[in-house]
Design goal:
The protein has 320 residues and is of the alpha+beta class. The protein is built from 6 helices and 18 strands. The structure holds zinc ion.
């Protein structure tokens, strides 16, 4: 089905539907798998995407299992689930698309006549996001990095804050701004609520992370009253506050091997050395001192580094 012809209301209620949204971009055929669970009774719609980055798998598994476990007969409202929105990157096992080298999480609102990533962004924004009452973008740290298991939200939007807390992740990250180009900037531009989720990644799906993602999905379905009951969200252990633009990570200045001295959620002081990049004679090429005091929210775990690779990101604590 072409995304321009997708109308979830045209699908029968009380049933599961699966199909592909199909379109062409720069001569390349694109197929986005869609799992639409239509509740027996009308209500709100939870929209969930995964694999915006092709090397992040927790969300893919969460969606595939959720779609078969949900019972449409007891749902008041719908779940609109897209397990792999960046198929070329997914099949290549890469963060960015091998078709155009672009990061799908930087090209929203996209263009219908643009490159594959730009066209995917355009059609997600045009054909999927308008149906959302709450949007969740399931990420993780991917192949090379490590992040705490967290839900992130734009702090000016109260429904998004409520969703982040209802999800039930051990870490919640409030952002004072939302840089352009993201799925969430497109959602907020529509005046809609949304959050994103991160986890450890590393191309391995940790069972604890999978359990948190899965419980989070059920919690949000309850928050939207699509399912009966109230969210079962333990209090978060860390409420972080700060910009979430990982493009501003501390980066490697050289090709080399990373000797890390910190782990995610470590508290560091200004000037504390986070790690060193050495050459293959063991000589130090770069020390990476913390520019400020803060909490480590991203580390590079894949120790072979190229000049320009992100290594660390620091943020602060929310003091309410
Ligand atoms: Zn990601």
């Amino acid at each position: 089905m072409h995304p321009g012809n997708f109308h979830p209301g045209a699908f029968p209620r009380g049933a599961r539907h699966h199909f592909d949204l199909e379109f062409e971009a720069a001569g390349v055929p694109i197929q986005l798998p869609v799992l639409l669970i239509r509740g027996a009774a009308p209500g709100r719609t939870l929209v969930v995407t995964a694999a915006v980055h092709g090397d992040e798998y927790e969300g893919v598994r969460t969606i595939l299992e959720l779609a078969s476990d949900l019972d449409p007969a007891v749902m008041t409202g719908d779940a609109l689930l897209l397990p792999v929105v960046n198929p070329a990157a997914f099949w290549a096992g890469t963060r960015t698309s091998p078709l155009d080298g672009l990061n799908l999480a930087r090209v929203f609102l996209g263009r219908p006549d643009g490159s594959p990533s730009e066209a995917i962004a355009y059609w997600l924004d045009q054909a999927i996001f308008p149906h959302s009452d709450l949007y969740v973008d399931l990420h993780s740290a991917g192949l090379h990095l490590m992040m705490p298991t967290l839900a992130g939200y734009y702090m000016a939007d109260e429904p998004s804050r409520r969703a982040a807390f209802a999800f039930g992740a051990p870490v919640i990250w409030a952002h004072p701004d939302m840089p352009p180009g993201r799925t969430l900037s497109a959602i907020y531009a529509r005046g809609k609520a949304g959050i994103y989720v991160e986890a450890r990644g590393g191309a391995r799906i940790h069972p604890e992370d999978l359990a948190i993602y899965r419980r989070g999905m059920f919690n949000l379905l309850r928050l939207l009253e699509i399912l009966d009951g109230v969210p079962d969200a333990p209090p978060c252990r860390y409420h972080l506050l700060g910009g979430g633009n990982l493009d501003h990570s501390l980066v490697s200045s050289h090709d080399g091997f990373l000797l890390s001295e910190v782990r995610v959620l470590d508290r560091v002081t200004a000037g504390q050395n986070l790690g060193s990049v050495v050459n293959l004679h063991g000589e130090c090429l770069q020390r990476i001192p913390a520019p400020t005091a803060g909490i480590v929210v991203l580390t590079r775990e894949y120790p072979v580094v190229r000049a320009g690779d992100p290594l660390y990101f620091l943020t602060g604590l929310y003091e309410a």
